[in-house]
Specification:
Blueprint: E1 3-8, H1 11-28, E2 33-37, H2 42-55, E3 64-67, H3 72-77, E4 85-87, H4 94-98, E5 112-115, E6 141-146, H5 152-160, E7 179-184, H6 185-188, H7 193-199
Parallel strand pairs: 1-7, 2-3, 2-5, 3-4, 5-6, 6-7
Helix pairs in contact: 1-2
Length: 204
Amino acid sequence: MAMNFKIFDSKGIAAKYAADLVRKQMNNNPTSILAFAMNDEQDFFYRELIEEVAKNPVDASQIHIFDYDNNESSFQQMGIVKEQLHRANKNGNLMDEVKNVKTKENKGKLTMLVSTFNADGSIGYREINADSDEGLLSAREVVVLVTGSEKAKAVNRLYETGETQTTFEAANLKAHRMVTVVLDYDAAQGLPADIREYYRSLFS
């Protein structure tokens, strides 16, 4: 497991940190293929990502986006052209769609999944098959933004559940090689106090 928790004082700061991770990925690899499934976290997150890209412009000429949130306008504000913006099918096979995308460096490979998990532990959206190597876990890197006290129990279950327990989708993230879970203070209450203190930091 390579799961890394980041804990921040507020939802806004947590969203800003997650957005900064994504903007840096787009900047460092201008041929990135990214999937977004932010569900109930999308309002704060996309606002911060648009601001990050506005302050630190990226070359979006080869970036492809798979959008589960139907948030086309946000990505267009970041410079993603319509031909490289794909509305993802929640009931489809993401990797079948990604394989049809060709960029210079990422031929049919999902570079990053940016998602959340819900209060019941489902990843992004319940319909997505998130525990399969043919699904969202095929991404090279995963960034998960989780905020709010209503998700604290799911955070606790994520921490306590073994990675072989596939009935709780969020726990399948533990089998992934590179996952960053970004929490606000309220969601982080689901972690044991000593673990919470260990992972807590201030955005800089």
